[in-house]
Amino acid sequence: MDLRALLMGLAFAFMWSSAFTSARIIVQDAPPLMSLSLRFFISGVIGIAIAKTIGQHWRVTAAQWRAVFVFGLCQNALYLGLNFMAMQTVEASLASIIASTMPLMVAGAGWILLKDKLPTQGIIGLFLGIVGVVLIMGARFDGNADAFGMALCVIGAIGLSVATLAMRGASSGGNLLMIVGLQMLVGSAILGVVAAFTETYFLNPSLKLAAAFAYTTLIPGLVATFIWFRLVERIGALRASTFHFLNPFFGVTIAALLLGEALGIMDVFGVVIITVGILLVQLSKQKPTDS
After folding, report:
1. What mean pLDDT is predicted for residues 40-50?
2. pTM for this structure?
């Protein structure tokens, strides 16, 4: 892995993790699904406009269109939609920890359901990930964390796992920024319809809300997604996914610094254990001959 790929991976992990803190700020003063739908619409339009400016085109294959729809539905509408809803009652640090278990879910599903080979190192990593989650969940339940909100986060992480499986079809063809913009418009349309039937509009305008919305629209929403696609193209999905092991650390650190969210000793132990588990799983799936 070269230096550029390393820097891209670190930047993606930081941006991706920071989205939970900005989302937590947004949902306190605006409807979660309406806000997210607007965020995706703005990000998608910007992405497509830039893509057209630099010569990218609308012509994508049928397989790419299917992947764009699945990615837009599962990651943008399902995963982020449920997380935005959950963070009305769930702290950003907890939501980021649950979401960061996605690589463990993907590896576990492949091993159990698809009979993928998983070395002993990977099995140990899965076990550690489960232990870490149990520690954190147990501590949060004792602290009266909202069970329904936590369940939404878990379902969202499952949706993100499905989106990850659709990544290769959406990222091929050298038309990346256009693909990024299109899948965001898919998510915007789905969330907009759901919000129209389920949410009541409210808004408490403030500079903090405006800054959080602008940040989440441009940085995690557009820049981080583009970097992720480019990273997958550069080093492959398996190596790129290794950077997810940084998400628990970044997620809880950013939430603690900006939102003042407290971390208990079990949270710290759980984050460390999950981080090690994710790293072991990802490293176990990489062949020594990979470039």
Report:
1. 91
2. 0.80
